[in-house]
Design goal:
The complex is a heterodimer of chains A (about 190) and B (about 425). Chain A has helices at about 5-10, 20-45, 50-55, 90-95, 110, and strands at about 60-65, 70-75, 80-85, 120, 145-150, 155, 160-165, 175-180, 185. Chain A has about 190 residues and is of the alpha+beta class. Chain A folds into 2 domains: about 20-45; about 55-185, Rieske Iron-sulfur Protein (3-layer Sandwich), CATH 2.102.10. Chain B has 14 helices and 6 strands. In chain B, strand 3 and strand 4 (about 310) form a beta hairpin. Classes of the chains: A alpha+beta (about 190), B mainly alpha (about 425).
């Protein structure tokens, strides 16, 4: 563009008759290039989603007959612990006797269980994913006698609801169904 | 450029090659002819130390990768095999593992030096921003590297940090599942972290090259913070600063070697010698020391922030504060508009600077403690405590960390007196202006 020689010998360097037309062509071809690059990147990024074999391993069956009243079992479902708690009468009463409106994530105990004596929750703190303590008989169960997360101090009650600490949500209740009185299928 | 064409003393193959690929001209221009302020002190060693550390990390990492297996069933044992069976494997791994700590130590000093002497100020804003990009890439690389041994700290560190993204409203959980490649940190996560941990150091090399290009555009800042005025203010980089850098490197490598040979696990956590167990979280998980200040900022936000139209939950607030604490560095050249670069000639900022450093170090200590326990620190072997809860100390320090950048610096830009600066680097005495 700088010298006369190139501008006369190279038609592309001539001053455009209609500058807006050239700008439009540049922007349009740029947009197509960006769309093409995004389209090419998509299968790469999509490959990072859970693969078919990971999705296939998504149910777990639990035999409830082996869990005495007052104790809990931890089973693995989708690589995460699930707490299956056989609650005592006192624990059920404590879970029901709560002013729902004062909870950070208001939920009644009834909607969190299928049978009051069995509480099934994903054993992963809703803050940053640690496994709360409280499954063992001698574990720290926290201020509300449910579970206590050692990472950042969240305390859950006997319904697995968040009562204190940084976690925003109650322990998640996974989808599960009673296959019979003593067996559940999670997932 | 034409004036700096290299004239090799020896003709022959060097001249032949230089004509076709001007590698000697380039080196001559960037080392022999590159004018460097003659008053640089030892705080200016840390850039080259960081660069050398990066090379050592890539070299040791390459050889570790030849022995490592990125599968959840084999990863832990492959690291133990490196430690016990691979010839000199323990040495390579300890150099690499402690190298991460050394890298951050050097880079923190490098950043603090820039903060004190105003190295982020015009015309070096882009140089500074590229440095912040390097720092972010380093953090991502170090985090993913720490996951690879697949110990308890690896697993739970990965779980906690990836869960940070679940704080994003609406799409957070989808993003986390995508990051994991599953429903928890598992084999797909480990393999992709290994691939990215291998790649990212080379991205860092790329940004480091840009960092150096931007540096050589205007040359190094210096302790006086004034521009180069005349030729006698400068000396050639080589041999004067190459030898000074080599001396600093010797001291630095002694410290690194002391850790490798006498306290190789001092900066690590014993829990990471327990294989990862997705069912049990260790009682006290803490990040590596170089992440503690940012971890403390994350935890400091334990309250919801009502904005009227929307309430930011504590979890999201913590994540925003943590990322914001680094992103605010990008804005620093525009937050601090005071015309004087060096804190030596800024009567207020020189003190504010140290309060910020104290806040940063205090954040590091709060990050290592449990939020509800009383805050304490060790001072010459004595435990000092004021009976204040750790979370409270972290909140005060977090406030000060941000307030220095967002409040104090803009105010100082307006009210801090502009003192008389030295006439030049070779005439650093203020009276030199009168012609002495």
């Amino acid at each position: 563009m700088a010298t006369k020689k190139t501008s006369s010998s190279h038609p592309a360097a001539d001053a455009p008759k209609d500058p807006t037309k050239r700008d439009f062509l540049a922007m349009a071809s740029g947009a197509v290039a960006v769309a093409g690059a995004a389209g090419a990147a998509w299968p790469l990024l999509d490959s990072l989603r859970p693969a078919a074999d990971v999705l296939a391993l998504s149910t777990t069956e639990v035999d409830l007959s082996k869990i005495p009243v007052g104790q809990s079992l931890t089973v693995m479902w989708r690589g995460k612990p699930v707490f299956v708690k056989h609650r005592t009468e006192e624990e059920i009463a404590a879970a029901k006797d709560v002013n729902i409106s004062q909870l950070p994530d208001p939920e009644t105990d009834d909607v969190r269980v299928k049978k009051p004596e069995w509480l099934v929750t994903v054993g992963v703190c809703t803050h940053l994913g640690c496994v709360p303590t409280g499954q063992g008989m001698t574990d720290n169960k926290g201020e509300f006698n449910g579970w206590f997360c050692p990472c950042h101090g969240s305390a859950y009650d006997t319904s697995g609801r968040i009562r204190k600490g940084p976690a925003p949500k109650n322990l998640v209740v996974p989808p599960y169904a009673f296959l019979n009185d003593t067996t559940i299928k999670i997932g | 450029m034409a004036s700096t064409v290299y004239n090799p003393n020896t003709k022959g193959w060097k001249e032949w090659l230089d004509h076709r690929l001007p590698v000697f001209t380039f080196m001559d221009h960037e080392l022999n002819k590159y004018p460097t302020p003659k008053n640089l002190n030892y705080w200016w060693n840390f850039g080259s130390l960081a660069g050398i550390t990066l090379v050592i990390m890539i070299m040791t990492g390459l050889f570790l990768a030849m022995h490592y297996t990125s599968s959840t069933t084999l990863a832990f044992n492959s690291v133990e095999r490196i430690m016990r069976d691979v010839n000199g494997g323990w040495l390579i791994r300890y150099v690499h593992a402690n190298g991460a700590s050394m890298f951050f130590m050097v880079v923190y000093i490098h950043i603090f030096r820039g903060l004190y002497f105003g190295s982020y100020k015009p015309p070096r804003e882009v140089l500074w921003a590229l440095g912040v990009v390097i720092f972010l890439l380093m953090m991502a690389t170090a985090f993913m590297g720490y996951v690879l041994p697949w110990g308890q700290m690896s697993f739970w560190g990965a779980t906690v940090i990836t869960n940070l993204f679940s704080a994003i409203p609406v799409i957070g959980d989808t993003i986390v599942t995508w990051l994991w490649g599953g429903f928890s940190v598992d084999n797909p996560t480990l393999t992709r972290f290994f691939a990215l941990h291998f790649l990212m150091p080379f991205l860092i090399v790329g940004v480091v090259i840009l960092h150096i290009v931007a540096l050589h555009r205007f040359g190094s800042n210096n302790p006086l913070g004034i521009d180069i005025k005349e030729k006698k203010d400068t000396i050639p980089f080589h041999p004067y600063y190459t030898i000074k850098d080599m001396y600093g490197l010797g001291v630095f490598l002694c410290i690194w070697a002391a850790f490798v040979f006498y306290a190789p696990n001092y900066l690590g956590h014993p829990d990471n010698y327990t294989p990862a167990n997705p069912m049990v979280t260790p009682a006290h998980i803490v990040p590596e020391w170089y992440f503690l200040p940012f971890y403390a900022i994350l935890r400091a936000v334990d309250f919801n922030i009502p904005l009227g139209f929307y309430t930011i939950e504590a979890k999201l607030g913590g994540v925003i504060a943590m990322f914001g604490s680094i992103l605010v560095l990008f804005a620093l050249p525009w937050l601090d508009k005071h015309p004087v670069r060096s804190a030596r000639f800024r009567p207020y900022y020189k003190w504010i600077y140290w309060t910020w450093i104290i806040a940063f170090v205090t954040l590091g200590q709060t990050g290592a403690l449990l939020p509800d326990q009383p805050f304490y620190f060790i001072f010459f072997g004595h435990e000092v405590s004021f009976g204040i809860k750790t979370i409270t100390v972290a909140q005060i320090s977090t406030f000060w960390y941000f307030f220095v950048f967002l409040g104090v610096m803009p105010i100082l830009s307006k009210i801090e007196p502009v003192k008389a600066l030295p006439y030049s680097i070779s005439n650093p005495v203020l009276t030199a202006k009168e012609g002495k």
